[in-house]
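Reopening closed ticket. The problem is back. First fold of the pair:
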Amino acid sequence: MRITLLLDLDDTLLETNMDVFIPVYFKALSTALAGAVPPDVMIPALTGGTKAMMGNMDPALTLREVFDSHFFPKLGTDRLALQSSIDRFYDEVFPTLGTMTKPIPEAVRLVDWALGQGHRVVIATNPIFPLKAVQHRLRWAELPPEKYPFALVTSYETFHFTKETVAYYPEVLAQLGWPDDPVVMVGDDIEREVKPTQAAGFPVFWVRESNDVPSEQDHIPRGKLESFQSWLEKTDPEKLKITLQTPQALLATLRSTPAAISTLAASVPVDGWSRKPAPAEWCLTEILCHLRDVERAVNLPRIRTILAEENPFLPGEDTDHWVQEHKCAEQDGAEILIDFIRARKETIGLISKLQDEWSRTARHAIFGRTTLLELVGIIAGHDRVHVQQIWKTIHAGW
């Protein structure tokens, strides 16, 4: 059975002391750009931009956009003015920093084995670096992207969330089209990988040299990297299913949907928005129109009703016919996506700070007695179905 493996990079596949590496990296970049920007201005701007990325919760903004909005104003310039110097740094200077890292032979063996088994391998590194930098780090790990067919390599150009925000994990799966395979995250950092992965409802294997852990972490599958293959082969695939059963996991998924769709849609040519995989199927514009209209006319009103009334009755909605009635195919797909993101942010705003309200009840015409938590779970499931549809539509021969 095919399994989707999310593999952390630093200190899982590549020996790296990030506490030492990051300051050296920042200093090297500031030195390379010193002719245009004084280092005493550059370093605080780099630090501030990085912190802004780590705190981003806006699905409308890629991490690069978040970084740029904090970084370049501090320098009194824009990206265009420095882009050639930045490119030269990543092409010529950044590769020399590989001496601060060390490849892990077992990592290469693991990736070779996983790909040989037909598993889907994702380089799930914290996406605070440009893709060029991540690719260099993969070469340092003796896993060059030119050789290894990774399903996805996460970077700040195409991702909207970092690992700390939990939404990173469903964004990875959504960018892959929410495959139905079993999935497991493999990483060493308890705060950036283990805890956020579990909060997102994803299975995790904690890469750890020592077996000495606090009692509250004793239930987490763990071991040295070389023990992961054996653990995976012995683990029932049913235990590697994603479970979206908590408010935190559901919120992370709801945030990830418009973010991932934005990245997927960015690769679509102008004429691709109206192209249908088959005559009876929806094109990308129609799928997005459906998501937007359901968000506006079904999801938001239901949530508001449950929060405002005691055990309200919620009528069933047949929404598929709206695609024709609203003439969705004639609308502007890019504008529809913007509208969907705006509506989804409104939904998230309604529920992101709820506490006991998740247990509020309602009577649904089809589902019967339900709760707010269950209805938000239905929204997340609906998202997943249509992200799968979007991915298949985009990859249908073009």
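Second fold of the pair, where the issue appears:
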Amino acid sequence: MMKYKRIMLKLSGEALSKPGGFGLNHGVLMEVAKSIKEVADEGIEVVVVCGGGNIWRYRDTKESGIERTSSDAMGMLATIMNSVGLQSGLESLGQFTRVCSAIDIPQLAEPYLRRRAIRHLEKGRVVVCAGGTGNPFFTTDSAAALRASELNCDVILKATNVDGIYDKDPDEHKDAVKYDELSYDEALEKQLKIMDQAAFSLCRDQKLPIRVFNFKDRSNLLKAAKGEDIGTLVHE
């Protein structure tokens, strides 16, 4: 029996490119699409939010001279590019997919409407929520937390390059200790950077669990979606 009926998958933009690369990599994109389809084939409803950091991100481009609101708008457009690419990959595998955008861009995606998105999910379609929240100063972590709350997702599955949450950066500290479980308050007290504060606070307020897992192993997504004990679970 599946633990989760409906999941939110939070992908970074970098998850769609080669390590250290820029833009979309077709091979990587198809690997991700196949892993998402595996979950959908199990009857689990899937919502996805993609970041845009593989194309544009404000914190990496502060020296560009482009002011913050315009830069964030460019980042939101980058998430739409990633989302449309992911949709194409999924549909090439036979998985019906809808991109629902917070920014009105009808030639590429339908507008995000909560009831319509839920209807898509009930029909077995993967829903990719694009355009962030549609507002500057909010990250795609915040968009994932917001959409997961609105769409009644059971969990946020945050795909990363490490196998969970550690007390310090495991790439820099060999003695880093991994947590199997954490409460929201513990994560805040330890100042663990699971998500940005706005996103994390919303998850805590809505009692929405977050599972952080290693997506380098593509099979981990299905394990996490089935509720298997991998990575780190943040909950009440």
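Update: turned out to be a display glitch only; the data is intact. The chain has a mean pLDDT of 94. The radius of gyration is 17 Å. Please close again.
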